[in-house]
Specification:
The chain is of the alpha/beta class. It folds into 2 domains: 86 residues, 3-Layer(aba) Sandwich (Rossmann fold), CATH 3.40.50; 134 residues, Rossmann fold (3-Layer(aba) Sandwich). Helices cover 40% and strands 16% of the residues. A 6-stranded parallel sheet has the order 1-11-8-7-5-6. A 3-stranded parallel sheet has the order 3-2-4, with helices on both faces. Helix 7 links the parallel strand 5 and strand 6. Helix 1 runs parallel beside helix 10. It is globular. The protein starts with a strand and ends with a helix.
Amino acid sequence: MILLDGKKTSNEIKDEIALEVDSLINSGGKKPHLAAILVGNNGASETYVNAKVKACNKVGFDSTLVRLEDSVSEDKLIDEIKKINNNNLIDGLIVQLPLPNHINEKKIINTIDVLKDVDGFHPINIGNMTLNLPSFIPATPAGIIELLDRYKIDTEGKNCVVIGRSHIVGLPVSILMARNNNPGNATVTLVHSRSKNIKDVCLKADILIVALGKANFVNSSMVKAGCCIIDVGITRIPSDITKSGWKLVGDVDFNDVKDKVSYITPVPGGVGPMTIAMLLKNTLLAAKSRN
């Protein structure tokens, strides 16, 4: 069993990005600039946004964080997005999800300038990705593809099962794995809460990508020997062996499957760090196109 070390790989990507930033500045360009809008004080969102700001500093980006109250109106949020859309000093914009219930996420995503949509959620970016045209690819699916590429995992003609059909991970990564690319060219099956015989489907997978949000959902009885597992899920569960009283686990029961698989991402330290690295990569791409 080989660990797909997202933390190590993401640090390598950040080092590569930092070199590109130096080259960009030395050739007369400006620093890439990422703006983030954070609505409310959700603890997980705070952690994610702070990690993104820290990563920007590490690679030499400028960053702006706009904080808005949980009670902010949808119109006020849209006004803030439009200000950033029209700010030529800012290359990329993310609105941290989830948003409060009174705000329409689809409307917010559609308001972001497609050329600054470094999260890759805008319908135009999703459409271009589907057609294998240049686009910003959603960061988590892009991170999964990058891990498979850097670890030289063969995907061509392989049976790939994706558990979960969210617009952020499951659906886009199923498209990427099926595209005529490398990594890609897999035979993809997408399963979800309405699917029948999920265990039987998973047992046929050469590559299993799990993005469900249910702790330890996949166990060894659902995995064939030699399978490659990408575990996207991360859930906090109680623990009596940690000082904090809780620990982070994935959608896959790591200890139960580790002796049966060929490759697996750890949780934490697998897909999560790759997501931030690919967000930085998209921002650099946006900055270079604007330069």
